[in-house]
Amino acid sequence: MQNVLNYLGANEPRFIRELSDYLRLPSVSAQSHHRKDMDAAARWLAEHCQSIGLNARLWPTDGNPVVLARTPRSESAFSRRRPHFLVYGHYDVQPAEPFDLWKSPPFEPRIENRSLFARGACDNKGQHFAHLKAVEGYLRTNTELPCDLTFVIEGEEEVGSKNLAAFLKKNRAELRCDAIVISDTGMPDLKHPALTYALRGISALEVTVRGPSRDLHSGIYGGTVDNPAMALCQLLARLRDKNGRVIIPGFYDEVIRLSAYEKKQLARIPFNAAAYRKFLGVPELFGERGFTPQEQRAARPTIEINGLTSGYQGEGSKTIIPAWASAKLTFRLVPNQHPGRTEKLVRQHLKRICPPTVRLEIQGGHGGEPYLISPTSPLAQAGLRALKAAFGYEPVLLREGGSIPIVTDFKKILGADALMLGLALPDDNPHSPNEKFSLEAFAKGMRMSALLWQELAVVGS
Ligand code: BES
Ligand code: MN
Predict the structure, then answer these.
(1) Is there an atom of ligand 1 within 6 Å of 408 CB?
(2) 184 lines ligand 1 (CB under 6 A)
């Protein structure tokens, strides 16, 4: 085992160069002009997996290919069933816009203050790369892995993982496993490595209101017809009150409240409201009244407007009544809410309150269920031991506010729980300009992964 850790330490500079090559590929799944880059990234990754000794192949889907890479299986037919774990990650990244806010171009990786800056650095290329390098450590030092591993790295996580469930169903037999290991979440700081035992779910939709058949002169016609931009704002304003509560009837009906144990765990996480406020650049924090910021961002549901479009956006002024207005909305959901049920409530409510002066259109989007595992299971305990050994500090238990919709599919289709060991730091800026990945987190993450297989093999056998 020490061999593996030594190998990881000795080869770190090369690993960083390789990760930089990976980050140079602009695999933005949301933008169709990056289609070719998706294939290029998948191919690069599969070839890289092959080069470190894994059996890798590309699995085509109706969207972007899945990279499937397995550790060489032991030959002996008599060997007892070895534990088998999946490592899940995604090679697609969020759009990098707005480009002008990046200190250096998003797809030209750069190191500053022991951090690697690039779109996808922490979300998620750097994080699953740490697991790949740990396995390389085993394979290249001829150290026996105590379990079989299969990497499933998809290219559509950031757009809702539309094709992964079908892939899991088709390959159910080969993917049968004891658990899924995922590093695609965060930790409070390097002295507080974290196991994430819950994620929020998500329900996305787009609301459009249409008025006149074309943009109208706002002087000639204004006053006689409704203004779609105004109507939409008024509709949206009726979805959340000034105390941060969603005011859609039935929205909170299924929400499970935090237990006293969980509240205590959340309170253990270092948190400084003033520093947090400053870091985010807001004049004051805002959230559902009656809950701490940690509770608000991890264990309470929200509504967010992610995009709002209407009327003239160009230079100068243009006096029109826009023909339409639209908003992209997402709801973050907590156990036991359900994206389908939430969407239905939202649709009903909007229809009920929409004035007859505009036409309402609602387009459903992607959805994902919230996720929750027991933080005291043997699986979780194994993860906590690996974190502690690699980082040298007592880990914390986290509920995260973000979503990884596929974790519930893993559970439903493969019957396996997800062990989420995130390596992103709070200032890593996922989805924002100047995304980065701490090289310290990368190094410790590789060690954690190497140690994890030893811990998990004991649990799984
Ligand atoms: N890695 C994130 C999810 C995440 C981040 C979970 C931080 C917990 C903490 C993932 O890549 C992501 O961004 N997911 C999307 C899902 C959506 C597009 C369906 C999200 O949460 O917005
Ligand atoms: Mn993401």
Answers:
(1) no
(2) yes
